[in-house]
Structure formats: C-alpha cells, structure tokens
Amino acid sequence: MKIHDVRRGAFAAALFLGLAFGLAVPGAVSATRAEEIEVKIDNFTFAPQKLTVKAGTTVTWINEDDIPHTVVSTGHFRSKPLDTGDKFTITFTTAGSFVYFCSLHPHMQASITVEATTGSLE
Ligand SMILES: [Cu+2]
C-alpha cells in the first residue's frame, strides 16, 4: 500500500512537471523579451496606426499594398522602399515615442510608443 502511494506520488509529480514544462515554454519566450509584433501596410495605411509595446519588442512592417512604401522616423530609423511583400524589422530597445511616416506618401503617418519593461525601472 505504501509503495503504491509512492508510485502515485511519483506519477503525479511527473505529470505536474510535464504541465509545468508545457506552461514554461511561453514564459521562457517572454523572459527573453522576444516579443514580436507586425504592422501591416495596406491601402496607404499603417495598421495599427498607434501601437504601444514593451522595450525589447521587435516590430516588423510588412508591405501588403501593391505599391512601394517606406517606414521612416526622422532621426531614428529609415527603411528602403518596400515592395509588395517586403519586410522591415526593428527591435525597440529604449523607451520613447516614435512618430513615423512613409517618405513616398508623407500623409501616411503612425506612431509607436515604447514603454520601459516592468521591473527595469531604477
Ligand atoms: Cu507610402
């Protein structure tokens, strides 16, 4: 009876570890701050137009329009003209607010706000 109980305990522990491991996978991803967000460019519009992310987030713009666009934030970053299907990726490491636009169609504007990660404030 006692051995049986031990085995049950071991099985429960293994099951628990299995569940913990499964749950730890997304946790491990966020621990490395590998968060990734996409901004689509279509119909002369950045979507979402206003985005708030944590520092360390990688943002990828994808041009889904049928004409070229660029992603330009004066003094911060500047993409080449993106043809249909082209991507432009930046990892935002510092907090701040970044207004950006398309240099080919300056009325195309959007912004990204980068927040300091929780717990890293000193
Ligand atoms: Cu454009």
Q: What are the defining features of this structure?
A:
single chain, alpha/beta, Immunoglobulin-like, 4-stranded mixed beta sheet, 3-stranded mixed beta sheet, 1 helix, 25% helix, binds copper (II) ion
Detailed description of the structure:
This protein is of the alpha/beta class and 122 residues long. The chain folds into 2 domains: 1-32; 36-115, Cupredoxins -  blue copper proteins (Immunoglobulin-like, Sandwich), CATH 2.60.40. Helix content is 25%, strand content 41%. It is built from 1 helix and 9 strands, in the order H-E-E-E-E-E-E-E-E-E. The protein has one helix spanning 2-31, and strands at residues 36-42, 45-47, 50-54, 57-63, 72-73, 77-78, 87-92, 96-102, 105-115. The strands form 3 sheets. Strands 2-1-4-7 form a 4-stranded mixed sheet, with no helix packed on it. Strands 3-9-8 form a 3-stranded mixed sheet, with no helix packed on it. The chain has a two-stranded antiparallel sheet with strand order 5-6. The radius of gyration is 22 Å and the shape is globular. The structure holds copper (II) ion.
Q: Please tell me how large the radius of gyration is.
A: 22 Å
Can you identify the CATH superfamily of the largest domain? Cupredoxins -  blue copper proteins
End-to-end distance:
56 Å
**Hetero groups:** copper (II) ion
Q: Would you state the CATH class of the largest domain?
A: Mainly Beta
- Total helices: the number is 1
What is the name of the CATH architecture of the largest domain?
A: Sandwich
Quaternary assembly: single chain
Query: Which range best describes the helical content: under 10%, 10-25%, 25-40%, 40-55%, 55-70% or over 70%?
Result: 10-25%
- Strands, count: 9
Mean pLDDT metric: 82
Strand order of the largest sheet: 2-1-4-7
Question: How many domains would you count in the coordinates?
Answer: 2
Largest sheet: 4 strands, mixed
Computed structural class: alpha/beta
Can you tell me the residue ranges where pLDDT is under 50 for at least 5 consecutive residues?
22-31
**What's the overall geometry?**
globular
**SSE string:** HEEEEEEEEE
Strand content: 35-45%
CATH topology of the largest domain: Immunoglobulin-like
